[in-house]
Amino acid sequence: MRVSRPTAKRLAAEGQGFQQLNDQIKKQLAECLLNNSRLSIQTIAQNLGYAEAASFSRAFSRWTGKAPGHWQSPETEGLPGDSGPVRGKRPKQ
Q: Which residue in 6, 35, 56, 79 has the fewest CB atoms around it within 10 Å?
């Protein structure tokens, strides 16, 4: 994803880059989904824009130092209810 020059300059002035901000948002969403949903890691990866669960797992491990499976709440892990991508979000083609 590309960001406009004015936006990039504004982010730089605030000491952030687009990729850093994007990673922070994805990390927070991933933590929330892993803790509070019954979605599979594959579905969470798709909802966050990753084509492969493995790519999401590597990014999540980089962000947190743990694999997504270790972060997922025992109450939600493996339960039925994975109905695919979150409504309003389309996985990347």
A: 6
